Amino acid sequence: MTLFHPFSTLSLSFLFSILLSNVVVSYQQDYETVPALNSAEQEAVYRVLDSVNSGIPWRSLFPDDLCSSAPHGVVCSYFSDSAAPNSPVTAVHVTELSFGYVSDNTPNPPCAADAALSPLLFTSFKFLRKLFFYKCFNHSTPVSFPDDVAAVGTAATTLEELVFVDNPSFVGSLCGILRNFTSLRRVVLTGNGVYGPIPEFVGGLVNLEELTLSRNQLSGEIPLGLAELKNLKVLDLSQNFFTGNVPSTMGYNLSELLKLDLSSNGFSGKIPDSFGALKKLQFLDLSFNRFGNFRVPMFLSEMTKLKEVYLSGNHLGGRIPEVWEHLGNVLRIGFSDMGLEGNIPASMGVFLRNLSYLGLDNNKLEGTVPQEFGLLESVGEINLENNSLSGRVFFPSSNFSRIGHTLKLGGNPGLCVDDEVFCSAENGNNNTKNASFGHLKLCKKEPQRPNPVPLEESSSSAQVFPDSMFVFLGLLILLNF
Questions:
Q1: Which InterPro entries does its entry note (predicted)?
Q2: What average pLDDT does range 34-50 have in this prediction?
Q3: What is the pLDDT of residue 10?
């Protein structure tokens, strides 16, 4: 048996406390050696904050080193000697500036009604990596970047994220905004007054992973250089004034693309077959353009990662193709107002088991509503309004309790619903209270046919005549006489 002396336990405790105190002292010493933000950069932060909202006393609220105690949205990073990566911290600099209150989780400095874009942003922060403005410039005075950012001394090669969201007074040509930043990884300019074409040199931004330019005043055609962005994951050009054909080879180099949104523009011509090479694509929105393939693209069958696809408002026409067997990940399909003809493929109900939305309204579809739609367990809406569908809307009762409330069927005069289904919807049954049957007529009940009377056989297998037949034969004999 091993015996522990009380002194041994006490000695171990004492030794541990000494080691712990040494660690704390060492940590404090290291912390004390971390340099503070230099006075010039700190002053620049105060002045930028004042330009965004002069009504807040920034200097008195944050009187200490802004890299140790700063408002949310001002972020610093610590730097060591580049020649000795493991050396102690030698400098600290502002690397992120975010303005405009977003939410309680991201309470950036709120912008006043007269917020301005300070030139100091482009001259005083040589290590800036992210610049973010959200709903800051909503006044009548235009706000824009300096004419030549590089000439006024900014370290344009460091900025990686440029994000301006919902700033209608922020104006300028896209060429003028992007031309001085060579290290951009993420560009989000949404809901601003940015105008002009996409410059050809954008293809030189080889680090770019996201290019979101939605809801601006951009125009022109997509430059061929855009297809050189091999690291691009998100491309969103929606709600602008772009025109012309999409480059036919655009899909071949953008192999990393996850989202492609060209919706609500004036693109025309054929949807490039090269889009079929976008094997990782999850979101495709080409709706409300002037594309005219005269058919739904067959390359959809190759996009096995696809979750959402929208082609509504184009002049595609033709039949809905049988491309659904390998698209089991699809959640939403928007094929409204495309001039589609023919029947709705039953395979959509068989293979699209994760579907939550299907829009086929305002087309020229014919035939019946596929009973296979009753297999869709996750669907929230099926809009088939304003087509030429006909026949009985029929699902087994066990499936209708799930699928009935998702259906929108108005504008199909040839369709009919059973009396019990219509009454269930009219009375607000939980299973059908959201169904839109429009002015669908009730199906005519099929006439009941009388059950045939089986003929009995005698022991000699001869047919036995009923009594009425004997009466009839007797009358014939009397008449002959």
A1: Leu-rich_rpt, Leu-rich_rpt_typical-subtyp, LRR_dom_sf, StomDev_PlantInt_Reg
A2: 93
A3: 36
